[in-house]
């Protein structure tokens, strides 16, 4: 198995709310990405599992930068939160002074600047239209798992860069209690001419504040934690409905609360008489530790998280040492099965071993908050279900060691034991356990 070379990337959390440790929407940012092909950009995005941005040299003298945006399934014309994240990173690195900057995107020119300590990007005035077909409104309600009578006022299609379908609900409790039929979202959005359903509810007693959720049409994941383009469209929709005034004001859109990743998106609307100037979208950002990003890029997001399947704990903690239970490798919820009988099975075993290590690292990250708290992996133990003549145990487990070296490049390699066995739980090809040294 050939390990994937990790490109230079930063994982920025954008539109973080009160708790930067949990809030915001991840945006992997690849700087100086001119050497990457479109296929590589798409593959790196697929591996990260998040909307990603690639920063390139501009093609025209009118622009200072060019950005390309991808979701796991395809390229996009524009991504608001990824643009904010890339500019925030460039400013933090001293490569942009915060003054107005023109960015070339597939959706046209986007300008960015720092205002009151945060990055803001431009979006045009939205085109807002009412969805008048009652059959479509009824289908939206069915897709969201509610009665159509719970939809307050007209449903709107609004777009600054991409069309979002705005669906008002009475309160945040109804919004966060939605039971969405995700299998119907894509075909419904096709008929609506929309790229996502964006239900929302006005916040009580908080002025220009609103809670929202985004269910994208075909991005490769069911829900977004923060969506700058959708928030901009929503702000214009609120003005169209008279829910915010015509003065220059800031609308705060809270998103991701139902996902456990609360976000806060600031949309600055101009004075109504100056509406053709468009709006500004921005918010707070922070950078995630590189270990967390490396794991996401190197290992497919479909790799399972480790969890006990019997009467035991995933980790037993003794001081700063965390001893894991054994975990068999899985993909898409299915065990990668054995046995390994000969050289042709080495790659199969490597997939199983890497998936098991990734599952344990994700479980550790969930408990620790970040893999940056792991000082080193002390031991790596592998158990392979093999035939009696199999002799490539070391090659199989070398792939697991290589993953650990790439996630923790500054740490020494762990000690390792590998044995062949007749059987493993659920018929797995490889079971792995780790001992971690954890920082206080």
Automatic annotation (TrEMBL):
Keywords: Isomerase
GO molecular function terms noted in the UniProt entry: isomerase activity
Gene Ontology CC annotation, any one: cytoplasm
InterPro entries associated with the record: Endoribo_LPSP/chorism_mut-like, Phenazine_PhzF-like, RutC-like_sf, YjgF/YER057c/UK114
Domain of life: Bacteria
Stretches of the chain forming a coiled coil according to its record: none
CDD domains in the record: YjgF_YER057c_UK114_like_1 (cd02199)
Family: Belongs to the PhzF family.
Annotated protein name in UniProt: PhzF family phenazine biosynthesis isomerase
């Amino acid at each position: 198995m050939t390990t994937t070379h990790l490109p230079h990337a930063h994982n920025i959390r954008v539109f973080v709310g009160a708790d930067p440790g949990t809030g915001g929407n991840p945006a992997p940012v690849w700087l100086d990405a001119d050497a990457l092909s479109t296929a590589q950009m798409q593959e790196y995005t697929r591996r990260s599992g998040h909307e990603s941005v690639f920063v390139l040299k501009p093609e025209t003298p009118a622009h200072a930068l060019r950005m390309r945006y991808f979701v796991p399934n395809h390229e996009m014309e524009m991504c608001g939160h990824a643009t904010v994240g890339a500019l925030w990173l460039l400013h933090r690195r001293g490569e942009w002074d915060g003054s107005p900057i023109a960015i070339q995107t597939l959706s046209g020119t986007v300008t960015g600047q720092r205002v009151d300590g945060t990055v803001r990007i431009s979006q045009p005035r939205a085109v807002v239209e009412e969805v008048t077909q009652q059959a479509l409104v009824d289908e939206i309600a069915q897709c969201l798992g509610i009665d159509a009578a719970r939809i307050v006022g007209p449903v709107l299609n609004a777009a600054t860069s991409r069309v979002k379908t705005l669906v008002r609900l009475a309160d945040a409790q109804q919004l966060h209690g939605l039971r969405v039929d995700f299998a119907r979202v894509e075909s419904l959005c096709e008929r609506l001419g929309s790229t996502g359903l964006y239900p929302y509810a006005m916040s009580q007693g908080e002025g220009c504040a609103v809670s929202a959720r985004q269910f994208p049409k075909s991005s490769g994941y069911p829900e977004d934690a923060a969506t700058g383009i959708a928030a901009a469209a929503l702000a214009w929709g609120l003005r169209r409905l008279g829910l915010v005034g015509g003065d220059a004001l800031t609308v705060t859109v809270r998103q991701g609360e139902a996902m456990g990743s609360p976000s806060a998106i600031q949309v600055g609307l101009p004075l109504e008489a100056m509406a053709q100037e468009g709006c500004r979208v921005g918010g707070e950002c922070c950078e995630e530790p590189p270990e967390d990003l490396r794991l996401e890029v190197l290992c497919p997001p479909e790799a399972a998280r480790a969890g006990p399947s019997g009467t035991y704990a995933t980790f037993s903690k003794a001081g700063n040492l965390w001893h894991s239970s054994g975990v068999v490798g899985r993909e898409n919820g299915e065990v990668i099965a054995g046995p390994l009988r000969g050289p042709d099975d080495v790659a199969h075993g490597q997939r199983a071993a890497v998936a098991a290590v990734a599952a344990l690292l994700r479980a550790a990250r969930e408990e620790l908050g970040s893999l940056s708290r792991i000082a080193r992996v002390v031991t790596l133990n592998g158990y392979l279900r093999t035939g009696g003549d199999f002799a490539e145990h070391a090659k199989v487990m070398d792939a697991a060691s290589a993953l650990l070296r790439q996630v923790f490049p500054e740490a020494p390699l762990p000690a390792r034991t590998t044995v062949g066995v007749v059987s493993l739980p659920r018929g797995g090809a490889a079971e792995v356990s780790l001992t971690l040294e954890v920082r206080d």
